[in-house]
Amino acid sequence: MSTTIDNFTKKLHDNLEAVEERPKSLRESIQSVPKKTQAEIESQLDEAKARLDGKKKEFDEYRTKLKAQFEEKESEVN
Fold first, then answer.
1. Which residues contact residue 6 at a Cβ distance below 8 angstroms, ignoring those fewer than 6 apart?
2. CA angle 43-51-58, nearest 5°?
3. Is the dihedral of CA 61, 67, 71, 76 positive or negative?
4. Between the CA atoms of 40, 46, 48 and 49, what dihedral angle is there, to the nearest 10 degrees?
5. H helix runs in the chain, sequence order
6. Residue 53 — pLDDT band, cuts 50, 70, 90?
7. Cα radius of gyration (the chain)
8. Longest Cα pair distance anywhere in the chain, in angstroms?
């Protein structure tokens, strides 16, 4: 009988510990969600900035090319 009570008490204790761990685990999981979301947003923002910088560079190169063509045409007219 004592063994049965000891086993029951141990199982009850183990179950209570598991129940105590669930909210802790859930809290950690919930707290990590905004961090993941923030990291994803920052990553997307970095990608957008990189694309914008690339477009700016393309635009500057195109403007330089147009300026050279305009100056060439202008020199032909004069």
1. none
2. 165
3. positive
4. 160
5. 2-77
6. very high
7. 34
8. 114
Amino acid at 46: D
Residue with tokens 């477009």: 55
Tokens of 78: 């004069």
- For 26-35, the pLDDT digits (tens) are 888 888 777 7
Tokens of 42: 């920052």
Both tokens of residue 27? 């809290």
Amino acid, res. 35? K
Which one-letter amino acid corresponds to residue 77? V
Q: Using CA atoms, how far apart are residues 61 and 52, in angstroms rounded to an integer?
A: 14
Residues in the chain: 78
Tokens of 21: 């761990």
